[in-house]
Fold:
Amino acid sequence: MNSETLISLLARRKCSGAFLSRRRAAKPSDFWQGKVLAPYSGDELVYNATLGDWRTHNGVDAAAAAGDEVPAVKGGRVTVVEDDALWGGVVEIVDANGCTWRYCGVTPGCVVGGDVAAGDVIGVVAAIPAEADLASHVHLECLKDGTWMKPEI
Structure:
């Protein structure tokens, strides 16, 4: 069984631990304070070269090399771990304030139902099919009551 199959199987069932192998990022703030490839656009339409259309950009694209560890911005409960055709690997964490933090382009290292702390490694940087024309990165979104918010990282 390969690691993607194992992650997929674990992600489909609730379990007591949040991680396949729990660890904290060396410097979580360094990851999120690096180069931003594409900022949150709010209601402004921006051109997506990969998809060839104009749309809002509902998150922040943080540059990172494939395989880099991805730390959680905020602590909370892992509610979604899935593979999405446009966004690649997706991890969603709901924090204590009810905000959903959505990490796209991640090979998950956590499982649904577990609790994570800010700075915990939730996976590693992978690919984002919907943003393939950009350099390697993680797409981070923040939703509150179903409305996209500018991710404060």
About this structure: The radius of gyration is 15 Å. The chain has two helices and 13 strands.
